[in-house]
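Now for our specimen.

. . .
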Amino acid sequence: MSRGDARDRLVQAAIDLIWTSSYGAVSVDAICERAQVRKGSFYHFFASKDDLVVTALDTHWGTRRPVLDEIFSASRPPLQRLQRYFAHISERQGEVREQYGRVLGCFHHAVGSECVQKPTAVAAKAQELSLALRRYLETALRDAQAEGALPRATRWRPPRACSRS
């Protein structure tokens, strides 16, 4: 096993354990056990659990971002972007349910909702990723408003308000 492999396994173990349990319920020991990595190796790669979780959030976002870039491509009509996004969420959560035995929701939102009151790098990273996702939605909504494609009741609402509804 290479050092990089151990680091990757720690990151994946953190994602799996925290997503299926919670940030607070998962210890460094549990992550090391799942990853089959000694605790000393953990601290070789990460200064703390928070450092690992920030990396896990970035890693997970890195797998989601190309999918979102494709779904929200400006070459598609804005309402199609939104329809594709919601279809993707439904499909993705079906895959998550098969893998984990239940629907888990969004990883970065799950972590963020638990850590939002903590002034940590984890809370800041989760907020950064939530804002990045919101920008995709706001852009599609703004484009739909510009096209006149939204129903009259929502046309007057700014895209930022619609994306948080």
